[in-house]
Design brief:
This is Phosphoesterase. By secondary structure, this protein is an alpha/beta fold. The protein has helices spanning 20-28, 41-50, 64-69, 95-102, and strands spanning 2-6, 31-34, 54-56, 73-78, 81-86, 108-110, 118-121, 127-130, 144-151, 154-162.
């Protein structure tokens, strides 16, 4: 099962559309995960139409229309992998311990908000992933997203992808 992880798209505030490379990943993915800050409901509609399966949450920049359609926390089991998605996890200091406490029955937690890619493992074995942003790099050198696969009940081959700089 192929996964695409994105967050903090901020459309159309930070970009007019998702980069073509991301749309190609949407087409290839079995599951698309969006960790919030969509900003415009049009992207939710388009991802729902173009994804085989979409799991998403709202972020702090998402208004009433998105909050009416998306949860604050999403949970799913993907071939034995217990996934949770949330937009914000708080400061990076102590993140693993806080998330261990908040998500005790979770194997993988996908989050966003900072636009900073993140891939760590908490003491319990909980994997924490932040794909960064495919449209707003902030102080990062590149816009980014992540892919991975679920195989034999485990998340494998997690990869951070850098997008070419926009002109």
């Amino acid at each position: 099962m192929r996964l695409l992880l994105i967050s903090d798209t901020h459309l159309p505030a930070r970009a007019r559309e998702l980069p073509p490379q991301v749309w190609a990943e949407v087409a290839a993915a079995d599951v698309v995960v969006h960790a919030g800050d969509w900003v415009d409901v049009a992207l939710l509609d388009e991802l729902e139409a173009r994804s085989k399966r979409l799991i998403g949450v709202y972020g702090n920049n998402d208004g009433p229309a998105l909050r009416a359609r998306l949860p604050e926390i999403a949970r799913a089991e993907l071939d034995g992998v217990r996934l949770a998605v949330i937009h914000e996890t708080g400061a990076k200091q102590g993140r693993e311990q806080r998330c261990d406490a908040q998500f005790p029955d979770t194997d993988v937690l996908v989050f966003g908000h900072s636009h900073i890619p993140w891939d760590t493992v908490a003491p319990s074995g909980l994997r924490l992933l932040n794909p960064g942003s495919p449209t707003d790099r902030r102080r990062q050198p590149y816009c980014t997203y992540q892919t991975g696969r679920v195989e034999d009940g485990a998340l494998v081959d997690v990869e951070l992808h850098r997008l070419p700089r926009r002109r």
